[in-house]
Q: What sequence folds into this?
């Protein structure tokens, strides 16, 4: 059974620092991995999708890496801003899981001005 | 021109009642999903439909019945509501079932009293 873990559960940084968010998964047989952002009381916004054949994806200040063999993905957010404060979720689309998305518990990020 | 919309946004009801949540996507996607986010913020898949056909049905009580009148709509009907059904329910869609990005609706916060 696929399990997805995100550590730390919460993170507080001063504005301008780079953010590093970790995601690990137990079954490396995946189709892709997706990073989402969730603001309080809101839905999920897709940030990046990395296919299993890719090693990284970039969008603006965001960069996500994928090491499928070790079951890890890292989301980097450069030069953090207070507007980056949110909960970040990673989700894995697993082969054995019947093509379902399995979510991690999220990392709650606070960027202090 | 919201991509994935849900109604209502908030739903407060008493135990034993029957209620429905509606979801619509205007992205032309073939696949739609229902997720439940519990009080601990874990997101779990409940159902998935592809072109109006059920393809994922997690171990969800049969009090929950999804209905897809067409591929742009996936509604969730819940019978005999229980306290434990209180959660945020998210609808999502993707281009197809082969593993593309999933786009989420804003969520419906259900409170059962």
A:
């Amino acid at each position: 059974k696929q399990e997805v873990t995100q550590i730390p559960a919460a993170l507080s940084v001063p504005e301008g620092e780079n953010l590093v968010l970790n995601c690990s998964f137990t079954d490396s047989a995946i189709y892709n991995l997706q990073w989402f952002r969730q603001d309080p009381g809101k839905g999920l916004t897709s940030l990046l999708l990395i296919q299993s054949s890719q090693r990284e994806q970039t969008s603006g200040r965001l960069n996500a890496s994928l090491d499928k063999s070790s079951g890890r993905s890292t989301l980097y957010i450069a030069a953090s801003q207070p507007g980056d404060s949110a909960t970040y979720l990673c989700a894995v689309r697993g082969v054995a899981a019947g093509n379902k998305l399995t979510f991690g518990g999220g990392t709650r990020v606070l960027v202090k001005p | 021109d919201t991509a994935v919309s849900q109604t209502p946004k908030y739903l407060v009801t008493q135990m034993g009642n029957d209620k429905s949540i509606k979801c619509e996507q205007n992205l032309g996607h073939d696949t739609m999903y229902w997720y439940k986010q519990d009080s601990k913020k874990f997101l779990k898949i409940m159902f998935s439909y592809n072109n109006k056909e059920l393809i994922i049905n997690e171990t969800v009580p049969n009090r929950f019945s999804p209905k897809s009148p067409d591929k742009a709509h996936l509604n969730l009907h819940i019978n005999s509501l229980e306290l434990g059904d209180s959660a945020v329910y998210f609808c999502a869609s993707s281009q197809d079932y082969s593993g593309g990005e999933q786009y989420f609706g804003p969520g419906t916060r259900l409170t059962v009293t």
Q: What stands out?
A: Chain B is about 0% helix and 55% strand. The mean pLDDT of chain B is 91. The CA atoms of residues 51 and 71 of chain B lie 5 Å apart. Chain B touches chain A at residues 4, 33, 40-45, 48, 56, 58, 90, 92, 97-107, 109 (CB under 8 Å).
